[in-house]
Amino acid sequence: MATSQKRLALAIIDFLSKSLNDGTIASEDTESIEIAKSCIADTFHVDPNDQAALKDAIGDQSLLTIYGVYEKLKGKTSTAPMPGASSTKPTTSTPKPSGPTPTNPEAEEFKSQGNKAMQQKDYPKAIDLYTKAINLSPTNPIYLSNRAAAYSASHKHAEACADAELATSADPKYTKAWSRLGLARFVLGDAKGSMEAYQKGIEYEGNGGSEAMKKGYKTAKEKVEEEEKEGGDDEMERAASPRGAGGAGGGGGGMPDLAGLASMLGGGGGGGMPDLGALMNNPMFASMAQNMMSNPDALQGLMNNPRLREMAQNFGGGGGGGQGGGMPDISALMSDPSLREAAMNMMGGGGRGTGRGAPQ
Fold first, then answer.
1. Which residues face 327 on adjacent strands?
2. Does the pTM exceed 0.90?
3. What is 7-41 written as a DSSP string?
4. pLDDT tens sequence across 52-108
5. I need a labelling partner for 134 at 20 to 30 A (CA). Which of 47, 148, 252, 274 fits?
């Protein structure tokens, strides 16, 4: 049977024993837990009383701490007590650093070889060697941080970020891990997260932090401010931009939506307000209106027509008969030769050649 499986079995037995002792598991379940421990020991052929084997399996850590590092990486936490546990002693998945991580001679040798590979810029080999060290000591922040550096050098920044997060969780006081986390996050586009990582590093370094840590923080902060400014500029541009090609609402070529305007003003019907909705449904008047909007001089000339001024005065006074609410009789209106000529000119006719916006 593989040695790693026996180590895991010893770690589980140790976890169950500690859970009984600290009250995580209720005392009435003691017999069941002891049976479970005995079954695990018999099945995996391990001796729970062999302290040397237990220390070799987990060192001064615990299965809960090791799992807590993994859970931290996944962004999960749990503070709910286990079924049957005392409500005054909830479990937690967040690991608590317990001083310097014990060294494993074999793991240290792998780390040293990994450092040499890094100096030679053989990053794949360095990653492999650091991985072997981590397999022997999963919560060692130095091994995790070193592998994060090797991943960054290999442009595998997501993996670097994951290792750096594990390292900071295993030992927040190991400041190199914060620096490497800040770099990985920055390259991944998380400037705010990078700034937070460097800030943590500065806090744990004390005395205002090292120059390298402060430089990383400054760079990340400037990027955050730049992104915030760009976001603000985008909002201003959206607020200032017209909602349509012709301004507020409206038809093509700058033509306002007079039918919509009429409905907003309660147009059509009483009060002397002409039915602009019906008016703009007339193709002739729609063309006139569009040409007027693009030719202010023609509009001024049209308004100098005495017959049109008389019509405008009748809009509000109910005069002019024909259609309700003071709306002039369009048929009668267009029988007037002068107005008909003006309308034809506004539509681009009347012998003036192509209109200002007409296709060639």
1. 323
2. no
3. HHHHHHHHHHHHHHHTTSS-GGGHHHHHHHHHHHH
4. 887 777 766 677 777 777 666 555 444 444 444 444 333 434 444 444 456 789 999
5. 47
